[in-house]
Amino acid sequence: MKKTATTIRVGTRGSRLAVAQTELALAALRKAHPGAKFEVVTISTKGDVDRRPLFTMDEKGIFEKEVNEAVKKGQVDFAVHSLKDIPNDLSDELIVACIPKRASPNDVLVNEKGQKLKELAAGSVVGTSSLRRAIQLMKERPDISVKPIRGNVETRVKKVISGEFDAVVLAEAGLTRIGMKDVIVERFGVRDFVPAPGQGAIAIVCRRDDKKTIEMLRSIEDPRSRAEVTAERALIEKVEGGCRFPLGAVAVTTKEGGKITLYASVFSVDGSRNIKVRKTGSAKNAEKLGRSVADLLVKQGAQEMAEGWRRAVEEWNKKA
Ligand SMILES: NCc1[nH]cc(CCC(=O)O)c1CC(=O)O
């Protein structure tokens, strides 16, 4: 009798972006494993009813955690996430088994009128819930008003179209993946407007002891992307955990390959101080590069800045 292939269950959040990313990963996996059968299991989480926290970022990854729980329990074989949304301290039973080829890490400005950041009228209301984006916007344009915005990517775009916001800042990767890149007006350079660590990368999480799945996922691993995000995440590991702190970090593989340059940027609460660091190192030792850039940041006072943010965020949360 013909043996039927077992179906591999794939967990994802239900947002349009999460589903699109899962389909992208599956398209690559199907190519590498033509015989394999996949079933997408949408795990609806609290995050999908529009409850992402605002500026607090305290609960980073809570919704992704729910999906990872399903992996742990064996309800699904692996889960597909935005790397940027999953915390460094993954549960011991789980691993990031695969980083597929990363999309652009850049942030972009979205609005209806085709206005670049420089061209927005004074007093324009720009939406973002990221401290990192907010502080970089305010530094460029102290005369605009940066306000928190809720909702998933398409909701945020709708809020610009409806006129509730004059513009929003989003990740180019997310907009592109859900087929909405035509609303992009301006693409910020990663050295001027430093993205979040891991931005643009997809992480596939599975059980550490599931050798078969790990092996299969390895077929779509992109070593360059892995090295880049490893450097970025090693950096946040060493600088105050990264939460509640507007830390930008992006690693860029050099043209010749083999080496990566890691750019990092942190701001003080009032935006008056900005520490920017850059270092190039071997892609083979990406973790070491991340740690050494962290050391450079700390030497220049990043830890004191982080403490300032911790206090400020506590105050905001009390008021919220
Ligand atoms: N926090 C939400 C989130 N998580 C991943 C993306 C986009 C894709 C990515 O950054 O990899 C977004 C939206 C955004 O930041 O615009």
Topology (SSEs and partners):
Blueprint: E1 7-12, H1 16-32, E2 37-42, H2 62-72, E3 78-82, E4 94-98, E5 107-110, E6 125-127, H3 131-140, E7 145-147, H4 153-161, E8 167-171, H5 172-177, E9 184-187, E10 202-207, H6 211-218, H7 223-238, E11 247-253, E12 259-267, E13 274-282, H8 286-299, H9 302-319
Parallel strand pairs: 1-2, 1-3, 6-7, 6-8
Antiparallel strand pairs: 3-10, 4-10, 5-8, 5-9, 11-12, 12-13
The protein binds the ligand NCc1[nH]cc(CCC(=O)O)c1CC(=O)O.
Description:
The chain has 320 residues and is an alpha/beta fold. It has 3 domains: 1-102 and 201-221, Periplasmic binding protein-like II (D-Maltodextrin-Binding Protein, domain 2); 107-187, D-Maltodextrin-Binding Protein, domain 2 (3-Layer(aba) Sandwich); 223-315, Porphobilinogen deaminase, C-terminal domain (Double Stranded RNA Binding Domain). Helices cover 34% and strands 22% of the residues. The chain has 9 helices and 13 strands. The chain has a 5-stranded mixed sheet, with helices on both faces. The protein has a 5-stranded mixed sheet with strand order 7-6-8-5-9, with helices on both faces. Strands 11-12-13 form a 3-stranded antiparallel sheet, covered by helices on one side. α7 runs parallel beside α8 (286-299). The radius of gyration is 20 Å and the shape is globular. It starts with 6 loop residues before the first strand and ends with a helix. Mean pLDDT is 91; it is low at 50-58.
